[in-house]
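Reviewers of the previous submission asked for a worked example of the structure-prediction workflow described in the proposal, so we include one complete record here. The input consisted solely of the amino acid sequence. No template or homolog information was supplied to the procedure at any stage.
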Amino acid sequence: MAKLPERYEHLEHRDGVVPYSILSIADCRRAIRRTLPTRLHAKQFFDAVVALLGDRAVVDDTCAPEDVRVHLRASDDPRLVIGAPLVRLTRGAAQGAQTVMTLVNKDAVLPEEAPDGWQPGDPPWAPATELRPQLVPRGPEMCGGAITLGEAHGSFTVEYDEHGVRANGKEAGGDMFTWLRRAATAPYHLDTLARPPSPPPLSMLARPGLDPAGHTAEQLAALLVDGELEHRVAWRVHLPVPVPMPIEEIVRVACSGLRTALFTGEIPGEARWAAADGLEGRAVAWGTTLDDALENFTHAAFAKKPRPPGTTLTDDAHVAERPPPMDHRAPRRAPTGSRRRSRRGRFTSASRAEP
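From that input alone, the workflow returned the following structure tokens.
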């Protein structure tokens, strides 16, 4: 068994660390990764999530086809959209194949099952339990990319190489020490006394029906749809008309405006709802109810007139700023104080002509 460095021994005796999932961390990984061995399976899972959500699904295809995301409509108010995506499917360059730099920590937290003397960067001490699929489908969906299942700060990503076959992955959520030290035997844990507390992983990883052998796309989609995304994400987005921005970018801009308004005192302490535009974050309003906040925001937006990306404000309208056409030729004009070559090859000074 790999020895734990002395400076990490206190993490073994913490209070407030509670288990979160039923299966071990390794079995939870297998349940998802074996269900999504290729990018085609990821696309089928994506479509199954959209079908199960029905009218609650909001497909954000602003960056399609390279990046498509699925958001949820709020159950208590269909006008509002949850500010974080439930599923994100990307395509493009091969994922997990380009290693630019590798940092090796010689004093790292090693898995318990690692042999004594093993260090990060050494060959694996055990054969891989996740074999590469030998028979894979063909088609336009078999390309590089990734799929991410998300619930606020908890996420799970499966990456695909240039052939569309499962490669590396990453995840977020849970106690990091347990994830590094006992992933093969221990379930996900939460450190409730940490400041801030460790964010929980996907809630589907704590379901009794999770099978390490894998699921069908529809079964895994059902586990994800019944999750806790709506309870974990406080941001709501109101989209009366389409805008050329991803919903997550709208949330980022609006959050910046709300933070500024809270810092300057523009939003008082008695506010229960606050709203900001997602274009520039300049129009901010608040209210004791959602309807009051939206009504006040209408007046604030009319006064501030936030501008969409790539536009400029004129006296009476928003006019898009477009670059000149490719065949546009700039006038030939020598700048003041510059030097240009004459016909005989000599340099002469160019100056502005006096009127």
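DSSP finds seven helices and 16 strands in the chain. We consider this example representative of the routine output the project will generate in years two and three.
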